[in-house]
């Protein structure tokens, strides 16, 4: 019997005691099986991985100051799993963090999630800080390396890399007809001299066994401890501040 990609991942992570997972995905890795799973993706993945907490990104990356960011919807380019996650949160089956850019859906909702500072994307008390402190298993399920490791941007902030700077701007959050103005903190690139290049970092993490890779049908599944990933990359950034970028 042919195993589905999620079942292959399940076998690999079965021995990991921590059952908190954050999963970035491109579900085309599921092939023709994706159609049969539509409408129950969140439940299926939660059950297969036997997760205690499952976090799924529901980012809004295409907003500007004139937009109201609707917390009941999601950027369509995010794909199938985020779309179903937001819908599930709208049905009170989970909790979506009220972050205008780097929002995550959590299943189930727990009290400690409410302690996350959603007025920033990265840094202390951000959602990525929460993942690391609670040692979530970071899973990149078929997504590209440059889109599936957003945690690296958080580590750039912690390391205070020289090519980024803290900025503040306003965003309007729309939630059930109510509008809330948020002064948002972001760690932005100073200019366009560099572009991100996460491939060397992922290769390095695999080499030192801080990250695992499963090759499947021309795509890869990566998984590893967010705490270990953080320790390794922060140490690397101390020595090589430009480790996560390339010159344009």
- Give the percentage of residues in beta strands: 25-35%
**Helix amount:** 25-40%
What Rg, in angstroms, do the CA atoms define? 18 Å
The count of DSSP E runs of length 2 or more, i.e. the number of strands, is 12
Residue runs with pLDDT of under 50 for 5 or more positions: none
H-E order: HEHHEEHEEHEHHEEEHEEHE
Largest sheet, in brief, is: 7 strands, mixed
Residue-averaged pLDDT: 93
Protein model, in words:
- By secondary structure, the chain is an alpha/beta fold.
- Helix content is 31%, strand content 27%.
- It contains 9 helices and 12 strands.
- It has helices spanning 5-13, 33-37, 41-49, 80-90, 127-133, 145-148, 151-159, 199-207, 226-239, and strands spanning 20-25, 53-57, 68-70, 95-96, 104-107, 137-141, 164-175, 178-189, 194-196, 212-216, 219-225, 245-247.
- The strands form 3 sheets. Strands 4-5-2-1-6-11-10 form a 7-stranded mixed sheet, with helices on both faces.
- α7 (151-159) packs across α9 (226-239).
- The longest helix is centred in the last third of the chain and has 14 residues, at 226-239.
- The termini are far apart.
- The model has no long low-confidence stretch (mean pLDDT 93).
Essential attributes:
3-stranded mixed β-sheet; 248 residues
SSE topology sketch:
Elements: H1 5-13, E1 20-25, H2 33-37, H3 41-49, E2 53-57, E3 68-70, H4 80-90, E4 95-96, E5 104-107, H5 127-133, E6 137-141, H6 145-148, H7 151-159, E7 164-175, E8 178-189, E9 194-196, H8 199-207, E10 212-216, E11 219-225, H9 226-239, E12 245-247
Parallel strand pairs: 1-2, 1-6, 3-7
Antiparallel strand pairs: 2-5, 4-5, 6-11, 7-8, 9-12, 10-11
Helix pairs in contact: 7-9
């Amino acid at each position: 019997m042919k195993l589905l990609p999620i079942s292959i991942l399940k076998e690999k992570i079965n021995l990991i005691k921590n059952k908190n997972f954050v999963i970035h995905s491109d579900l085309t890795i599921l092939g023709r099986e994706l159609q049969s799973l539509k409408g129950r993706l969140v439940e299926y993945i939660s059950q297969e991985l036997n997760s205690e907490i499952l976090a799924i990104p529901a980012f809004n990356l295409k907003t500007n100051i004139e937009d109201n960011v609707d917390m009941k919807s999601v950027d369509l380019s995010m794909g199938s799993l985020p779309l179903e996650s937001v819908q599930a949160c709208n049905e009170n089956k989970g909790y979506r963090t009220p972050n205008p850019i780097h929002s995550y859906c959590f299943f189930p909702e727990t009290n400690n999630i409410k302690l996350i500072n959603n007025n920033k994307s990265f840094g202390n008390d951000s959602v990525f800080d929460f993942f690391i402190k609670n040692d979530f298993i970071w899973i990149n399920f078929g997504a590209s390396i440059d889109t599936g490791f957003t945690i690296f941007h958080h580590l750039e902030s912690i390391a205070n890399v020289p090519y980024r700077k803290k900025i503040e701007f306003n965003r309007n959050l729309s939630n059930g007809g109510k509008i809330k103005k948020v002064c948002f903190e972001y760690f932005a690139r100073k200019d366009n001299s560099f572009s991100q290049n996460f491939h060397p970092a992922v290769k390095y993490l695999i080499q030192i066994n801080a990250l695992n890779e499963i090759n499947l049908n021309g795509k890869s599944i990566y998984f590893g401890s967010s705490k270990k990933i953080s320790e390794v990359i922060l140490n690397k950034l101390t020595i090589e501040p430009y480790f996560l970028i390339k010159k344009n």
